[in-house]
Amino acid sequence: KQIGLAHEFEKLLLSDERFEIIHEVLMGLVCFRLKGSNELNETLLKRINGNGKIHLVPSKIRDMYFLRLAICSKFTESEDIQFSWQEVQSLANDVLAEGRPGN
User: Fold this and answer.
1) Any signal peptide, and if so, which residues (predicted)?
2) Tell me, what CATH number does 10's domain have?
């Protein structure tokens, strides 16, 4: 079940060209990032975790900073994945808007 939910989140990420998947989704772990700088992704993670609605974990490989969504509870449902995606997307919108000239 968790693997299927991870693939559901992966599909949502792939539907938004601002994001990239860092590694093939195997098991219940989705590694992803906003296309752009490490600093942009660090800001996004701080915003997500600071908001307190979902919690993501960072990682770094070869100087590439990315975010990890771990789905490991047997109680996780599709609604939780949709909620997580809405949080990630909404806060990404905010972070990207703040980085635009004139803001």
Assistant:
1) none
2) 3.90.1150.10
